[in-house]
Amino acid sequence: MPADSSDQKRILVVDIGGSNIKTLASGQEKRIKIPSEPDLTPDRLVKQVVEATSHWQYDLVSVGCPCVVSANKPVKNPINLGSGWVAFDFEKAFGLPTKVINDATMQAVGCYDKGSMLFLGFGTGLGTTLIKDGTPVPLEAGHLPYRKDRSFEDYVGKEGFARLGLEKWNRHALAVIDILRSACNADDVVLGGGQAELIEDLPDNTRRVDNRAAFKGGFRLWEKHWLRHF
Fold first, then answer.
1. CATH number of the domain within which 221 lies
2. Residue 90 near residue 50, CB atoms below 8 Å
């Protein structure tokens, strides 16, 4: 729980995924999970979250969105969700001070310690964020070309897993980790997302975190250090 710039205010964290919306608030032990749909729009998402968390009390909101975010608003529609996300005003919709960042960046903030850390979120797609000496750099590396006119995400996302099977998918996942680690000159590589647990024989200086990192990141956004960046 943040202890400085939020002045002990209660925070609701919303982690938007291609399969589920996960929420947790300060002082709560159990998260709430809401199924997301391929045609999910941001206004419907806000209504569902507000309804599902009506028994919780919170003063601030952190939103991790699976798309490019700038100036506290999405600038692209998520690939795996509906339309209407571009420039959507989450703060107005929630009626509370709200921080909106890329979902992989929120997880990265939650597990950052020091130095140069690359976060790779193996989920529906491939989320990527670099944090260098405390400065977060959201990336869209998952959409870069990889092989046979397909992107990294096409190979190591959920569809790639379904197409390739575990053994081949694992080989490509390890190759992608190695390529992106080298490209970003990262000392520490952190793997998150639901598919990360399937990766076998992790390389050196590579660690795995679960989705609780997203909630920790959402709480951290309101701390003094991170407020400078978002």
1. 3.30.420.40
2. no
Q: Are 126 and 156 in contact, with CB atoms under 8 Å apart?
A: yes
Q: What is the pLDDT, as a whole number, of residue 1?
A: 37
The parent domain of residue 142 ranges over: 114-208
Residue 4 placed within a domain: no
The pLDDT tens digits of the residues spanning 116-150 come to: 999 999 998 999 999 999 999 999 999 999 998 99
Verify that 76 and 127 share a domain, yes or no: no
**Would you say residue 30 lies in a domain?**
yes
The per-residue pLDDT for 175 is 97
Domain count, the chain: 2
Q: Percentage of the chain with pLDDT > 90?
A: 89
pTM over 0.85: yes
